Amino acid sequence: MPDKSYWFYLESFVYAVIKGRDLLLYNSLTGKFLSYMDRPRLVEFLLDLDRKENLYVLKVSREFLRDNGLEGFMGDIKDYFMGDLIDVSLTPKKPFIMPPHLDNREEGGQRPRRIIRNVSGDSLFSINELTFFVTSRCEKNCTACDSAGKQFLWCTGEKESSELDPVSGPMLELTEIKEILDQTKGCPIKTVNIIGGDLTRYPHLNRLVDLLCPSFNVNYYFHFSHLKNGFPDAVTSGCSQSKVTLLVDCSTLALPCDLNHLKHLQPDKIVFLIQRDEEIPILEELIENLKTGNIAVQPYFNGHNLDFFKANVFSDQESLIETILDIGTIKARRSYNTLSYGKMFIRSDKKIYSDLNGKPLGRLGEISMETAVVSELSEHGNWLKVRRDVVPCKDCLLDSICPPLSNLETVSGINNSCNIWNDHRNMK
Length: 428
Hints:
This protein is α/β, with parallel strands linked by helices. It has helices at residues 40-49, 62-67, 71-79, 145-149, 174-183, 205-212, 257-265, 280-290, 306-312, 317-322, 327-335, 369-380, 407-412, and strands spanning 5-10, 14-19, 22-27, 33-36, 57-61, 83-87, 129-133, 191-195, 218-223, 242-249, 269-274, 295-299, 343-346, 351-353, 362-363.
């Protein structure tokens, strides 16, 4: 009796990646994945399946599956709704499947080609977010002042000098901000962030609010220590597209006095900076008593709290499974940094950055924003830095499923901010 033949296929929503003798299959509808370590025959089968002429479909026999130890794999595929076997006698014509075409094979040790981006013409329209550090003047001396701002949006100031007038230090003039907005007119800018220094000491704040509202969605960032007298009237005047974000360092709070002041301020959003386990009870008390839903917790790497990050911040398999990625998002993460792409920062010293941990692209008045974007895309590459470019992530099967590289990796010097791949063969 002749051996029965079947069409084996993978669904078009399955992302397959092969690294040497290891294999991962990811169901982009459910977020579930299958991983197989040191399975050369299975890898060879998947490489054949992924060839352009096969289009995720191969004719197989029971004997072939048995001889190559693939029967258990077929059961896994069915259980995870990633594919199936179809009796050829019932469907003589080969089924048509449209694979995701991620070019995941690394035959001959060659990496998949990166998307080649055009860095001329409409490059300016890559910008989707602008952040203006309008002033660096501040009389405080916070321990997290400069380093926190290298990791996330946080105010960063300049130590007060008695020789300088309180408002004569580095700041952006209103005409300079307007020039940037004019240059980027028509760009898909979703958000404009306004931050200091001490934003209450920016002398043009009222006119800046008038300039930005109602053309942009604007976030104004104020540090809690600057608001003894509450928010400036200009930013709470009722423009529906303006939001006020309050920055709070948990390590500096004095309860219950500061809790009462937090309740009185009523910002649109509160961001709590936290850097050690001892601050977690304080944070929990604040969240319970403030009774507002728009609260964010921002872990801060101070150079000495790596254990805190490993326990509370680093990714693990469970958190990855909870976040379902579609094929489009996976493709994007393989091509550019979806966290940082399109963001431009203009500091109060007139320098323009695509990454506050990198070198400036130039200075206001010396280069245009279009020139800055071309420089970023063609020379600096901050927007195009992805996990498959860096060690050890480029050897990890999850390099395109893990969150994008962030400033945390840059500041800490640890690219694999996870609890999964210290030894990637321990993956379940």
